[in-house]
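Ticket #4471: structure output looks truncated?

Reporter: J.K.
Steps to reproduce: submitted the chain below (286 residues) through the standard prediction queue, then opened the result file.
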Amino acid sequence: MKTYQYQVLRYLHDHVTGEFVNVGLVFYEPQTRFLRAQVISKAQRLTDFFPGLVGRHILAVLKHFAAAVNRKGQALATQEQATLFAQGNEAFDLRQFTLTLVRQNDAAWQLTAVEQGLTLNPDRTFADLYQRLIGEYQQETPPPRTADEQVWRQSYKRYFDRHHLTEKLEPRQIPTANDEIKFEHTWQNGVLNCFEAVTFQLKQPAKIKDKAYKWVGRLTELGTGDVPLHVYLLTASPNDPALQETIEQIITAASSPMVQVDIIHENEAENFARQIERKMQTAGHE
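Returned output as attached by the reporter:
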């Protein structure tokens, strides 16, 4: 068994609150002169924790840090053993080396004290340790989808295609008292059925509610026209169930004698497509 050393690199956002996120690992095994660093490659977890943070700058700093450590690791691996260990294994001091990269009183970056462990395989232990301390917490949930068109393509279109609905839908400009509102996917059957993909997977709850109220305004305006509508909102819902319930109450309250509103969820997509297919068959739209 070989003794290894490691330090965790942390991003410290606020010294007052002490909030931090683990963003990198430095690993050193003296016997085989194995020195390596790995840092996060995406800033989503940081920006989720600390809105307004410039993730691009943070990633650039991290990339520079990892490159400096790994260059030193390559140098250690190629040095002749007699030169490297002229004074024994302490010829290279992990703590002293990392202090040249991250100052002890740095405002945003901190390295933990040097910890130790035992390993038979430094490469595998390094990978496992990084996954346990840092990688496990990256991308805990899928990234929010902010584009309505993305929701249509990813969650609904394949079911509409499978049930031969997409080819039967057409865009339509709907005149209202003050304007015209366009829907890309409509089907006429007594009333005009309008299918619109909408994402409410936004980072900030206030923006989610704002989007819901904008839809209320749109639906209210549609109610001023002379075309009876059935509007199906094909949604990607927020992760918070209470917030989801709130926005659904806000939107469905905008239903009127001229505009019926139904909200469809992603887990209902295939059954919904099958239901519309049956309606089209009944109406003679084979």
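Triage note (M.O.): checked the attachment and the full token line is present. The CA atoms of residues 12 and 20 lie 4 Å apart.
Status: closed, working as intended.
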